[in-house]
Design a protein that fits this description.
Spore Coat Polysaccharide Biosynthesis Protein SpsA, Chain A, nine-stranded mixed β-sheet, 9 strands, about 35% helix, globular
């Protein structure tokens, strides 16, 4: 039986995601684990988001103009009171009944500071597109391929935030890559072989619609972290940039 000693703080930045945010909320609420808080930082939505948030008395939420998603994430981190932290965006959602296993792993492995699982990509209607599995994330692999980040499927102890701070608010698309790259210099990422989350992959998704800007931000993260630009890195950036021209514009 899980002790539920460890408290989860789940952060959700949101702006005009009324079409999807209920799925996110329900996926946190309906876990096999009750010791959690769900903090939603809304950027002043003008769709039906606020109407949805008001239906859930357990939520801790604010709705006010902010400086973008990274700012919202850091505002959520500042409000977090849990032992285990994660952020999940307002169009993604968690696998059923995974919190108990995650909490048990952290309890049984006090050296574990960061834990990640598998991630499944779905379309707007939740039809499965693909699943990314395997124990592959560390500093070297992140440098080689930033795309392996599994942000909604990653959990970490609050001590990570206290020691290294939150995300870089100058970044608007790859703040997760930069954040995990920084902390992977100091901590081994533990892997739990189970699907943790579902990531919606669709044309209006920010990472798709702004793919060229994303490539530029990845370049900036490499520079900021004093990473040498090898041939393989230049090839990765070039291919990513060229691929962006084939994506449907928002």
């Amino acid at each position: 039986m899980v002790s539920e000693y460890l408290k989860f703080s789940i952060i959700t930045p949101s702006f005009n995601q009324g079409e999807y945010i209920k799925d996110t909320i329900e996926s946190v609420l309906n876990q096999n684990y009750k010791n959690f808080e769900h903090i939603i930082i809304d950027g002043g939505s003008n769709d039906n988001t606020i109407e949805i948030l008001k239906k859930y008395s357990h939520l801790k939420w604010v709705s006010e103009k902010d400086r973008g998603q990274s700012h919202a994430i850091n505002k959520g981190f500042a409000k977090a009171s849990g032992d285990i932290i994660a952020w999940i965006n307002s169009d993604d959602y968690y696998e059923k009944n995974v919190f108990a296993g995650i909490a048990t792993y952290f309890e049984n492995n006090p050296d574990c500071m960061v834990l990640y699982g598998d991630i499944t990509y779905v379309d707007k209607t939740k039809c499965i597109l693909s699943t990314i599995q395997g124990n592959v994330i560390n500093y070297q692999s992140l440098v080689k391929c930033p795309d392996i980040v599994r942000q909604p499927s990653t959990f970490w102890r609050i001590d990570v935030i206290r020691e290294f701070g939150g995300v870089d608010e100058q970044l608007h698309l790859v703040m997760d890559f930069d954040f995990f790259l920084r902390i992977s210099k100091h901590f081994q990422f533990h892997y739990y072989k189970q699907n943790f989350s579902y990531y919606r992959y669709y044309d209006e998704n920010k990472s798709l619609s702004l793919a060229r800007r994303q490539t530029h931000e990845i370049h900036d993260v490499y520079k900021k972290n004093n990473i040498a630009f090898t041939f393989s890195i230049y090839k990765y950036l070039f291919l990513k940039y060229v691929h962006s021209f084939g994506l449907k514009k928002k």
